[in-house]
Design a protein that fits this description.
The chain is α/β, with parallel strands linked by helices. The chain has eleven helices and ten strands. Bound molecules: zinc ion. The site of zinc ion has 4 residues, from loops.
């Protein structure tokens, strides 16, 4: 079965109920959201009535809550501990976010591993593993999905070896609560040719184990292979191309893994901006590219 959805908006007045409504309007059967702004750690209280209404609506529409994910805010950085106060704040915030996941009953949290900045990769890896060991120690019933990154700046988690190094340093109880979220744009920008996804999966399986992949972000990329940039493009309008992405989505070895679109809204700087997800999900289901933006017009986006 195909689990396909997109990034959605979690807003104060409708919360999880709004997320489910939005996903249904795209023809999605799963979703991803931030529990507040992706740039800040300010969070409002969870309304239990809205949460229960949301789960009821999901059930009525055959949506599987275990395939849905939350994304942690970008500003959490576990890789650098030069400012101890900040490092501890991020660990605590991650813990709170995991507890919010449990309260919302959407129990998978995607996390960017972090950037080592003034330190080095090895130190960064140690700090991330240490932070996860502390944050996840007492968490029951929620897990962290470490995201595969493009390698922009000093990002950690930009190769299978990086992710393996973090995972190898986890305590055995914490190991059971840590998984991986792939991202096709990040992989392309890190130097992985999406046309050769099976080669990548072979290596992943050998080093980490394919059962650790619990989500894939499906994005095209504005930038060429190995550019270390990280700018998501709409499916079929970037350098990866629709067919290569389709090959990931329907890859037998990724069957049952949630596929989440994080592609940019159309005309995002204009008043009439709109979400591409309904079109993209429909193309995926039909397995056929449809030039809905108009390639010529889209070319000035590239
Ligand atoms: Zn992400």
């Amino acid at each position: 079965m195909l689990y396909i959805g997109s990034h959605t908006s979690y807003l104060k007045d409708k919360q999880l109920y709004g997320v489910v409504e939005e996903s249904l309007s795209y023809g999605a059967n799963i979703f991803m959201f931030y529990t507040g702004s992706n740039q800040s750690t300010q969070r409002f209280q969870i309304d239990h009535e809205l949460r229960d209404k949301a789960h009821k609506l999901m059930k009525e529409n055959g949506m599987d809550k275990d395939k849905c994910v939350v994304h942690a805010p970008f500003i959490i950085n576990l890789a650098n501990n030069t400012d101890n106060g900040k490092y501890n704040f991020y660990i605590n915030f991650l813990k709170q976010e995991l507890n919010r996941c449990i309260e919302l009953d959407i129990r998978k949290l995607v996390l960017h591993p972090g950037s080592y900045t003034t330190l080095n990769r090895e130190k960064g890896i140690e700090n991330i593993a240490n932070g996860l060991n502390i944050a996840l120690k007492d968490i029951e019933g929620a897990s962290v999905l470490l995201e595969y990154m493009s390698g922009k700046g000093t990002e950690v988690g930009t190769s299978i070896d990086d992710l393996k190094a973090i995972i190898d340093l986890l305590d055995s109880e914490v190991y059971k609560k840590v998984f991986v979220c792939l991202d096709t744009c990040h992989m392309n920008d890190s130097g992985v040719d999406i046309n050769e996804i099976d080669k990548f999966l072979d290596e992943f399986d050998e080093k980490i184990g394919i059962d650790k992949i619990k989500c894939v972000h499906i994005n095209d990329s504005y930038n060429p292979l190995g550019s270390h940039k990280d700018r998501h493009a709409n499916l079929g309008y970037g350098t990866i191309g629709f067919d290569a992405l389709l090959n990931v989505i329907y890859n037998k070895r990724l069957e049952g893994v949630p596929m989440i679109l994080e592609t940019p809204w159309i005309n995002r700087n204009l008043k009439d901006t709109w979400a591409p997800y309904k079109e993209e999900i429909s193309m995926i289901k039909k397995r056929e590219f449809n030039d809905y933006i108009n390639k010529e017009k889209a070319s000035d986006l590239l």
